[in-house]
Structure prediction request, 249 residues.
Amino acid sequence: MSRIKKTAGFIIRSINYGDTSRIISVLSQDEGKVSFMAKGARKIESKFGSALELLTLTEFVYYQKEGLKLLSQASTLNPYSKLKSDYDRLEVALRTARWLQRLLEEDHGEPSVFLIYKDFLEMLCSMLEVEHFALYELSFKLKVLASMGLAPTLDRCALCNKAPERSWFSLEKGGLLCQNCRSGGEAHERPLNLGIAKGLNMLLRLPFEKLTRIKLSQDVTAIGTKLIDEFTSHHLRPLMQQRKHLAQN
Ligand SMILES: [Zn+2]
Prediction:
């Protein structure tokens, strides 16, 4: 007999399967990223109703059968309607959902990521200023990476721990390098102004509600976003290869 289980989570991806079904990826409260097969979800009179919409916080009842998680019931806990009715908010929420979908491993418990995403989406709903969205998005990404043990070192040299006078960011070492420690000419090293590194460190350390009080230059968001996306891709590549290898064997 298969055991009925229950969990709650945000829907971060939904893809069509067969003629009437969907496969739903969920950032769940207690099991990390999980995928459900929702049979008949695309029928007009589907029992799931609107509970399977992207970015909705839903409670799922499911059972495991032959390696698949089959969804039996879904009920909306919070539709986050404000996100879905505003183009700018929706764009940020969908982009971060896609980022999480790529970053997280299936069935790998990351309870803190769920809480960070929930805080972030609630902040996004309540914020008034569109120009702050990019800063919050960057802070969100840094906080998620930190919760997965990938926090970049931004206040000192990642190798010798000294405060550098000039600094580079190493995608490989995951942090700043001083002039003595950098290898030079490496494809994974980027010059990084210390002021920008300091700004990024604040985005990493400060809770969301304190971010509006700090003054950061536009450069921190623009340069920081590019750098953190490169850093994420750099760390995802070996992870992706590992997943592909496991899937083939
Ligand atoms: Zn050093």
Observations:
- The pocket of zinc ion is lined by residues 157, 159-160, 162, 177-178, 180-181 (CB under 6 Å).
